[in-house]
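Narrative of accomplishments. A recurring question from our advisory board has been how the design workflow behaves on a single, concrete structure rather than in aggregate. To address it, we present the structure tokens for one chain from the evaluation set, followed by the sequence designed for it. No filtering or post-editing was applied between the two.
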């Protein structure tokens, strides 16, 4: 029963992140920075980071979301951009969270910044031009802003989730 419950919880996280990814694709985003997005699917990653005791589960949720979202509407380049951004984002969030000196909002903001850094690195590799790094400060500011918004939303969501009896079961069995 615990394995089934664990699989259901992970599947729900993946499904929620996919829905947010699809919804985000439908939203017109009036950003100054071309290519910048809100990163709504990352809301689920941040919530999972704080709700699930095993961090490898967070990585699995993130990887499955990237694979499925690429299958739904991305190409191989989209996959590489997503994987590199997600790897650096999750890695930085794990370090910042473990450090213990940063709030959930700070951890999420770091994730937003490092996500963009990972994507710019891949862009430099694909177009074989390091001058793309000049765009990083603009994307870093956008990533920090969206990371803060995602962090605030995750904090409010977790506050309400922790009141549910199901949350304690997730903590015990996942």
């Amino acid at each position: 029963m615990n394995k089934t419950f664990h699989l259901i919880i992970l599947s729900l996280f993946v499904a929620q992140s996919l829905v947010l990814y699809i919804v985000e694709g439908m939203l017109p985003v009036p950003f100054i920075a071309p290519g910048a997005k809100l990163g709504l699917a990352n809301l689920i990653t941040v919530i999972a980071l704080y709700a699930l005791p095993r961090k490898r589960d967070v990585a699995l949720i993130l990887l499955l979301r990237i694979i499925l979202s690429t299958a739904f509407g991305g190409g191989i380049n989209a996959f590489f951009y997503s994987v590199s951004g997600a790897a650096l984002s999750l890695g930085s969030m794990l370090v910042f969270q473990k450090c213990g000196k940063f709030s959930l909002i700070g951890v999420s903001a770091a994730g937003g910044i490092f996500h963009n850094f990972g994507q710019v690195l891949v862009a430099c590799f694909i177009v074989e031009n390091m001058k793309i790094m000049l765009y990083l400060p603009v994307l870093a500011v956008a990533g920090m802003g969206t990371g803060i918004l995602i962090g605030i939303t995750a904090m409010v969501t977790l506050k309400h989730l922790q009141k549910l009896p199901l949350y304690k079961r997730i903590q015990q069995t996942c």
